């Protein structure tokens, strides 16, 4: 059973604001992605069809909005309030995808963060915030994150948050031009009865 409306949603924690991605974000999103092209390239999803390619920004937003309307995805931008600025700046993106209802009640989560803001707790805070939203508001039971074994920063995120390592998935996703192995991590709602975000924030102040 769904406990609340799925979309749109805006989630906040301190200076961090997660909100829906919009067509009018194109200029800022493109600038951030361009500046981080080398940082993100090893982990970028690619199209295994040699005749195909990746969607442009407008196509991506249209597809994500369509999935959100069908209750199968939550496409968030990760933004951060900055002193002296009228609106939060884009510092990353987080998408909850492959949402399954019925007897599964689960989803998969993926994210990226601006290299200039990496190491400041943005990724784990965003993941914890969204996981709690999925468990407590949507009523999902399981959240899964799949990570390349070589992706040290992302591995540290799931380690900090206490996601369970469920093992190796050979040639799981097409990444940066080839089928790539991943490690699968997961968390169920019973493992964080009081919420993942409070547990994460407690570790930062202890």
Automatic annotation (TrEMBL):
Pfam families: Acetyltransf_3. The keyword Transmembrane helix does not apply. GO terms for molecular function: protein-N-terminal-alanine acetyltransferase activity. PROSITE patterns: GNAT. GO terms for cellular component: cytoplasm. Gene3D superfamilies: 3.40.630.30. Residues 16-190 form the N-acetyltransferase domain. InterPro entries: Acyl_CoA_acyltransferase (IPR016181), GNAT_dom (IPR000182), N-acetyltransferase (IPR051531). Keywords: Acyltransferase, Transferase. SUPFAM superfamilies: Acyl-CoA N-acyltransferases (Nat). PANTHER family: [RIBOSOMAL PROTEIN US5]-ALANINE N-ACETYLTRANSFERASE, GNAT FAMILY, PUTATIVE (AFU_ORTHOLOGUE AFUA_3G00765)-RELATED-RELATED. Belongs to the acetyltransferase family. RimJ subfamily. This is GCN5-related N-acetyltransferase. It comes from Pseudarthrobacter chlorophenolicus (strain ATCC 700700 / DSM 12829 / CIP 107037 / JCM 12360 / KCTC 9906 / NCIMB 13794 / A6).
